[in-house]
Design brief:
mainly alpha, 72% helix
């Protein structure tokens, strides 16, 4: 197969889908980094945030994987991922003086937006 060609039955990802995959992977990375930061800081006030970070991290990775393999459940997964990202952004916003939390909230918002777009699109 020539470089840049697609295997039988596989079409190239749209720009929107590629942007969503990239936003999901970026959000996954930032959530993992933020979890590490939370673990180092400690404290019971971070436990609800840790749960949101774990959910978001797993959802964004799975969502990206499903889009890349063109799963027929991608649209539904994108809708769920957007919800997890929204919840995580809200949790992170509870610590507005923490730059890592604010960075994570922004990544989550960006990912939620692209996932909402993909959830409404035919994949």
């Amino acid at each position: 197969m020539q470089p840049g060609t697609q295997s039988a039955g596989m079409t190239a990802m749209s720009r929107e889908m590629q942007a969503c995959v990239e936003a999901c992977m970026s959000c996954h990375t930032v959530c993992e980094e933020t979890m590490s930061s939370c673990l180092q800081a400690g404290g019971p006030d971070r436990m609800p945030i840790m749960r949101a970070l774990m959910d978001c991290s797993e959802m964004t990775r799975m969502c990206a994987d499903m889009m890349m393999r063109r799963s027929p459940m991608s649209a539904e997964m994108c809708a769920m991922c957007a919800k997890a990202c929204d919840m995580c952004a809200e949790a992170c916003m509870s610590m507005p003086d923490d730059p890592m939390m604010m960075r994570c909230a922004e990544a989550c918002r960006r990912c939620a937006e692209t996932c909402r777009t993909m959830a409404g699109a035919a994949m």
